[in-house]
Amino acid sequence: MQNLLLINAALTILLLSDTPASSMHDQRMAEATPYSVPAGSRWLQDLGCLACTRDQVEIIMPPRKPRGRALTCAQKAVNRRMARRHVRIEHVNSRIKRGRIVHDTSRLRKAGVRDRVLEVCCARHNFRVRLTLWQPMV
After folding, report:
1. Which has the closest alpha carbon to 120: 136, 104, 100, 135?
2. What's phi and psi for 72, nearest 5 deg?
3. 25-36 pLDDT per residue, tens
4. How far is CA 118 from the centre of its chain?
5. Does residue 6 contact residue 35 with C-beta atoms inside 8 Å?
């Protein structure tokens, strides 16, 4: 299963995309998913969606190492800060996958069942975040 998640600074899941019928690149999935991001937002994205942009949204990406040269100390510090944010997002993914039905191979073939299971696991994560507040991403 492959889905897109939109997560805010408080680590609450705001958007869960539909599961595509076949394998699809992250960029095409992002273009096919209708969602809006408030103007003035900052969007932390990885290399999977390089060309994905929104109007009036600041795109934040880690600096890449130039070919044949090393990153500067300032760029390395930026990468470390962004890596800390990225780890928090991966923790959200692992919390969703604690529902083993999402993590393991599923034989549920009926239309919409896999999406419903993933929705329940995301709702459980949001419920736990409301009960025990995590430290927001800085």
Report:
1. 100
2. -75, 170
3. 766 776 677 777
4. 14
5. yes
